[in-house]
Each structure stands twice: as structure tokens, then as C-alpha cells.
């Protein structure tokens, strides 16, 4: 049996490790926040610090007045909203169909989905397909190439399989069509799954970078992540002086851009949290 001293040592060890982990995660984030409110001169002269001598909102004012940043922010919102709708519509419909044991060709299709988790089509073949369908410089090249995530599909399929068969049979006896059954009964009962994968897909679309870089040549259509890349390239050397419209551009602007980029997801998460906590256990009952 454990003694009180052993239990106390275990608790102290756990809390010590948790505290170290929190500091490892929190300190870089705090540094980014603090630097975004500091001046360029202070950042370059002091190096690492967690409390600036002079607080300023100049970096945020610059970004709010910078046309390219506003355009890319708007593009990211558009990509995220439409992309998430497409993702959830296709994923939920396909998962619901594959959850039916009477579906003809169900096993081969499930096998194909599983294979795509292990092997991708490759960058060059995917690019050639996008080019063949004339989707270059179109947001459809981003939405369609990432329309369904195989892992999300499999987990959601398992969730739908856990529904009682009696519930669906009684609905069909009442004259409910398959689509109406899915929309009016299955989806309302699947809010944990819907909220969880909506959040996952939103993060995926909001952080779109590689596909946008490959398929979008028009800088006016670039999302926020590509804009941040251009910002880093333009100011790769933190010691050089870059003046944009009278403002001395430096590390604080880049940090402010990172903070603004993270804010939308931080704002949305609390509204989905109550469903998200339940949704993390999806698919753990049936495989």
C-alpha cells in the first residue's frame, strides 16, 4: 500500500511537471504579446523581456491601416467560412452513408478511404489535376483538395454507427425519407461530433498555407498565412530599417500580426467547448 509520504511526493512531482510544461508553453506566447506592444528600438536593443518600458499600439494601428493585411484577413475569413461548410457537408453525408451496412460497395469504399490515410496522391499529380480542371487562382483549388479529411470521416462514421437502429426504423415507418432522417434527427443528435469537426476544419482552413502558396498566384487572393510569410521575407533581417508609409516596420509588427491571426479561433472556441469536450471521445465505443 502507498504511504502518505509517497502520495505527497507523487502529487508534488505531477504539479511540478505541469508547472514546467505550462511555463514552456506560456512564456513564448507572453513574449509575442509583449513584443507586439513594444517599439522596434526597444526590441532590438533589449532582446528578451516580458515587460516593455514603453507600451504602444503603433504596430496594431499600422496593420489595421495596411491594405494588404486587411485584404488577406478578409480572404482567410472567406476561405474558412465556405471551406468549413463544404468540409462538414461532404464529410457528414459520406460518413452517414458509409455507416449503413446495407450500402452497396461499402467495404471497398471504406478501404479506399483508409488507404488515403496512409498514402497521398502526391504534390505533382494533385497540381496537374487542379490545373486540368482550371482551378488555379481559384479558392476551389483549396476547398476541393481538402474537402474531406479521412480521419474525421472514419471517426464520424463510427459515431453514426452507434445510433440505435430502432430509432431510424421507427422514423422510416413514419414516412421519413433518408435525407430528412439525416437532417432532422441524426444531425441534431450529433452536435458533439458536428462541433468537434467543425472546429478542426476551421483550424485547417484558417491555417491554409501550402495549398494557397501552390495554387494561388494572384496576391489579391492570398490568405493571412501567406501574407505572414511575405512579411517575414520582406523583413528577414531584423536589424535592417524598413519604413512603410512613414512607419518604421520591425519585429513588433510581425508579433502583432501573429496575435491578430490567432484571435478569431480563440474567440470561437468557447462557444464550441461544451460540445468539444464530449466530441473528443467520439468513435471510442464502436470502430
TrEMBL record:
Keywords: Cell membrane, Membrane, Transmembrane, Transmembrane helix, Transport
Gene3D superfamilies in UniProt: MetI-like
Subcellular location: Cell membrane
GO cellular component terms given for this protein: plasma membrane
Highest taxon above the source species: Bacteria
Transmembrane segments annotated in the record for this chain: 12-38, 77-99, 111-130, 142-160, 181-203, 255-272
GO terms under biological process: transmembrane transport
Occurrences of domain ABC transmembrane type-1 (ranges): 73-272
Membrane-topology descriptor: Multi-pass membrane protein
One Pfam family recorded for the sequence: BPD_transp_1
Family (UniProt): Belongs to the binding-protein-dependent transport system permease family.
Name of the protein in its database record: Carbohydrate ABC transporter permease
